[in-house]
Amino acid sequence: MEALTKQELHNLAMNIVGKKLQEMGYEFVAINSELKKHPQFVLFKKGEPTIFVLVKATKNLQNPNEDYDVVWMETFKSHAKKQNASVWFAGVGIANAESVDLPVFKDQPYYVAFEDFLKLSN
């Protein structure tokens, strides 16, 4: 069995978040699925400010939105503010269905924990 790479886990999280954003009626202005390149999504919805969405795949199924770097996020929020944009964080918990201690394997069952976005600025 082959474990998913960090990039593959990130892409899986991006797909999950992208579907949710489409369901919410957002248009994608830009999408960047490269690891450590932010934001992953730049969103547009008529009558609303631009939204930068940061996506992070994590093994934390209990509280996936807690898994971000607070200091880095403050820097990013100030960057977004200069562009009159809101910042949303999407922590996506992805773990092996048999045990969170095992990696997520290709073509094997896994759990996903993604409820909602952490809205960090308006």
CATH architecture: 3-Layer(aba) Sandwich
Apparent shape: globular
> In which range does the helix fraction lie?
25-40%
Q: Briefly note the structural class of the backbone.
A: alpha+beta
- End-to-end distance: 44 Å
CATH topology: Trna Endonuclease, Chain: A, domain 1
State the helix count.
2
Q: Name the beta content range.
A: 25-35%
Largest sheet: 6 strands, mixed
Low-confidence stretches: none
* Total beta strand runs: 6
Number of domains: 1
CATH class annotation: Alpha Beta
Mean pLDDT, nearest integer?
A: 92
Gyration radius from CA atoms, angstroms? 15 Å
Order of helices and strands: HEEEHEEE
Quick take:
25% of the residues lie in helices and 31% in strands. It is of the alpha+beta class and 122 residues long.
How would you describe the overall organization of this protein?
Strand 3 (50-58), helix 2 (70-82) and strand 4 form a beta-alpha-beta unit. The chain has a single domain (6-121), classed as Trna Endonuclease, Chain: A, domain 1. 25% of the residues are buried. Strands 1, 2, 3, 4, 5 and 6 form a six-stranded mixed beta sheet that branches. It starts with 5 loop residues before the first helix and ends with a strand. It is built from two helices and six strands. It has helices at residues 6-23, 70-82; strands at 27-31, 41-44, 50-58, 85-96, 110-113, 118-121. The longest helix is centred in the first third of the chain and has 18 residues, at 6-23. Helix content is 25%, strand content 31%. By secondary structure, it is of the alpha+beta class. The mean pLDDT is 92.
